[in-house]
Amino acid sequence: MLSANQEYIFPEETIPAYEWVERLIRYINAESMQEKHSYWTGFPWSKAGTIPVYYPEKIHLNTRGSSVVKNFYFSKSLTKTLANVTIGSVNISIVNVLVAGLEKH
Predict the structure, then answer these.
(1) Would you say residue 88 has pLDDT above 70?
(2) pLDDT of residue 64
(3) What's the rounded mean pLDDT across residues 64-83?
(4) Is the per-residue pLDDT at 60 higher than 80?
(5) Contact (Cβ atoms closer than 8 angstroms) between residue 88 and residue 12
(6) How far apart are CA 66 and CA 59, in angstroms?
(7) Could you say which of 2, 25, 32, 60 is the most buried, measured as most Cβ atoms within 10 Å of its Cβ?
(8) Beta-bridge partners for 87
């Protein structure tokens, strides 16, 4: 769809993104969440065991050490198309999403 210059329509949202974020912040800051945080951080995690491996021959798979970074590049026309895509009713562009992701790292 994007390469054919057709508009991509994202599924309808149940609530706007900003409202979801506000709810999440209220949940995180709620007293009950602080109690849960204290509960979970109070465990002696350094003494916790590891999860057993069912397939020892595949222990090297799906671990942080087995991850690989793959680089890829979009064509100029696809990049321009993606830059103009907006996400549903919140009117957030893909560029905004990518920049927000970069700010986390």
Answers:
(1) no
(2) 66
(3) 75
(4) no
(5) yes
(6) 10
(7) 2
(8) 92
